[in-house]
Amino acid sequence: MNTPADDFLSAIDAIPAERLPALLRAMPKAELHIHIEGSLEPELIFALAARNGVALPYAGVDDLRRAYAFTDLQSFLDIYYAGASVLLHAQDFHDMAMAYFARAAADEVVRAELFFDPQTHTARGVPMRAVVEGLEGACREAKARHGIDAVLILCFLRHLSEEDAFATLEQAMPFLDRIVGVGLDSSELGHPPEKFARVFARCRELGLRLVAHAGEEGPPAYVRSALDVLRVERIDHGVQSVHDPELMERLARERIPLTVCPLSNQKLRVFPDLADHNLGRLLDAGIVATVNSDDPAYFGGYMNDNFLQVFAATGLTARHAYRLGRNAFEGSFADDAAKAAYLARLDAVFRSFA
Ligand code: ADE
Ligand code: ZN
Is the pLDDT of residue 223 over 90? Predict the structure, then answer.
């Protein structure tokens, strides 16, 4: 990837601070960490519940929203899985994803790599085909309607067994050409990456790209084992890496992208005060950090909200914004030609502000 010229970077440094919010809104973005089930807004949850005859343990939209007072990851996941229970048919998955793509397009997202959690659906009797075909159709429509390049990443739920993950991979075999890679999510503490060593090795043999959540609530050791045992290419979250200086150096040296989610970290009390978020520290250490929304319907914001709020709270600069923009495209699973085209679009927007 070409490196930006010094005079271009100096021009970015000269962008006045009051122009930063407009720049953050306008810059083209890649979102690399979005659980599509986490984009289900309460209104859509209730609309799908009515359409599918699913009973919910909440009186209505306001009652559900009131339950979004999370104390940690698990307290969120319990509600997130309850919300996903309204998804039954391919059309539901399609409608959910299209609602996300409309929001993403408004935030200048031009590439989206969507996580989905098939086990939370197949366990309720929803066929893998309905999940994948609904989401894949939406990805195609996202390109036609919004110009967004979207791909799918199947996540294994780490609170379940590796045997269950293998069974899920087996169910996904007919659809592997529609999936770019696999990830690992759900309850982190007590479920280290090495629990999934064999299934990730198998996915690697199958030519799938590999990512994993690590170092969200869990220790730096989980980030290390995601890299060394699972051999992932990106770490989702990874913010706990700051407690391990050697790991920090390694992440920078090996250019391992971290898909950081500021509002998620705030709402799940990883950094209860956004002003304490370590995104700037990661960037200044030379780490390929990116900004993402994680579960935007639950955490109070999509991509632009994440950018605007973490910049305002921590005093990041236009130079950081440029770095974040580049990191996301470079860390994406797009091919080199597509990456070069995204970076050219990013540079054009920054040039127009400089
Ligand atoms: N599933 C959805 N959001 C998640 C998160 N932030 N961490 C782990 N698993 C998740
Ligand atoms: Zn996540």
Answer: yes
